[in-house]
Amino acid sequence: MTTFEPTEFLEWFQKAGGWYNDKYLGLKPFKGMGYGAVALDRIPEDAPLFHIPDSLILSPFTSELSTKLSEEEWPRLDHGWCKLILVMMWESERGKESPWSGYLSNMPREFDTPMLWDDEERKELVGTDIEDRIGKEEAEKEYTEHLLPVIKAHPELFPPSSTHHTLDSFHLQGSRILSRSFTVRSSRFNPKDKESDGQSDFSDDDDDEDQIAVMIPFADMLNAAFERDNAHLFADEEINDEDEDEHERGKEKGKGFTMKSTKVIEKDEQIYNTYASPPNSELLRKYGHVDILPLPSDLLALLTEEEIGGWGYGNPADEVLIDGEMVLKCVEKVTNKQQGEDLDKWKGKMTKRIDWWLEEGQEDMFPLSLSPEIDESLIAFIRLLIHDQEWLRAKKKGKLPTTTIDNDVAVIIREAIQSRLSRYIGDIRSDLSIIHSLDIDHIPRPNASTTQADGIKAEAKGEQVNAKNLRKCYAAIVRLGEKRILKVALRIVEAQLNKKRKAEDQ
Ligand SMILES: C[S@@+](CC[C@H](N)C(=O)[O-])C[C@H]1O[C@@H](n2cnc3c(N)ncnc32)[C@H](O)[C@@H]1O
């Protein structure tokens, strides 16, 4: 996975102006995670662990590439990650000449993100939230339409014989950005951009137009796992003045970012950053791994024995996104709308309601999680579509619909869930069978003591781990997490429908 040489990397980092506390922190491999940071001693809370000056951040602003291109060429690259990718290609091309040589030569070259899976492997993700979000074709279009013309126009920067700017290299740099970049305000680097209005320069807030992806050496060496974060990256301006003399962060080298412990970290413990606890589908898409933890008892209590299947693990942050468009199709199906003028009129009516919903700042993707409740905004959205009085009230009073699941709502949700469930390959049992049969040492085995697991064990092939098997296993874990959520949600709406049925029978 990685050609990482810790000593070489750390030497480069210090020579290039970075600072780290060598008494507190070391870098070492962790099973199934690549390299990560480890506490060499007991670290108190709020201790600076390392500091990266802004000049060491690899970005379209800090690299000199922009000065080598014409005034027309550079702004034309203002498209997604085009500038950063081209910068990373050029800095890699420069080898030892590049100020980031020791950083780039120590970055991973292989990734397990679905973008790089073959077609057969990607079929394992059919039905999951990742299926439509890989974006391989769109990414390759960016390469052909935006990067290739500049690359071809500058053989002095990008020699035709080099491998640093091929399509493969484009994917390599893209995967590095996807799994290791940080989002910061561009005004931090570019005085021409709007003033930073007193907010933090480091942010995960994607909505802000002033955000750009940058590569922050060292900060990207930390792994993350659900609710295990014990360190955080702070822009220096966020840190109190009284902390200033706590460490020689190389203040003369200018402002930058400091990684600090946010809890006491015991000796030999891993130092974790946070990736904001995404669901496994998102972890796999961006980082190429999944989070597997023993599920808490309140979540396990929602599952049947068959759904647990002797494997009470998963990611408590898992979710399934129900697409508003699919909800509309379910409404159309359940209300039995037929082709023709009536259907067109109905569609026009629905469009008005959906436009209003979006104008109110509401999302049209609804997350279901492993929870005894159905997402309230999904209920409100369905009520808006199917109950005329909710729509009239919404329009008149500017109020969102109520969030009660009545029978009509439950029928639509059941239809949406069944439609999602019908799209996956295999069932829960076959997912568990894959997880069990592949011998991957960082993935806990199903507990063989239950009857269900015994059945699974009988199917076990004991295959050895390789990249293909790992991908297959990760896909099965994502599918399993999503199917469990959908099954729980299905039980909730079916209970609602049964309640109504019983009341009618009495
Ligand atoms: C920001 S980098 C962290 C450093 C990385 N481990 C390395 O060796 O360079 C993110 C990558 O680390 C790995 N990683 C991080 N957290 C992990 C976890 N909880 N389980 C497995 N892999 C993890 C994934 O490969 C992910 O794409």
From TrEMBL:
Superkingdom of this protein's organism: Eukaryota
User: What GO molecular function terms would the record report?
Assistant: protein-lysine N-methyltransferase activity
The ranges of region (Disordered) come to: 188-207
User: Keywords of this protein's UniProt record, alphabetized?
Assistant: Methyltransferase, S-adenosyl-L-methionine, Transferase
The UniProt entry, under SUPFAM superfamilies, shows:
RuBisCo LSMT C-terminal, substrate-binding domain, SET domain
Residue ranges of domain SET in the record: 23-276
Kindly indicate whether the keyword S-adenosyl-L-methionine belongs to this entry.
yes
Which InterPro entries does this entry report, sorted A to Z? Answer: Rubisco_LSMT_subst-bd, Rubisco_LSMT_subst-bd_sf, SET_dom, SET_dom_sf, SETD3_SETD6_MTase
Q: Which GO terms describe its biological process?
A: methylation
Instruction: Write out the coiled-coil annotation as residue ranges.
Output: none
Q: Which organism is it from?
A: Kwoniella mangroviensis CBS 10435
- Say if the entry is tagged with keyword Transmembrane: no
Residues of the signal sequence? none
Short name of one Pfam family for this protein?
Rubis-subs-bind
GO CC terms in record: nucleus
Q: What Gene3D superfamilies does this protein map onto?
A: Rubisco LSMT, substrate-binding domain, set domain protein methyltransferase, domain 1
PROSITE patterns attached to this UniProt entry: SET
Q: What is this protein called?
A: SET domain-containing protein
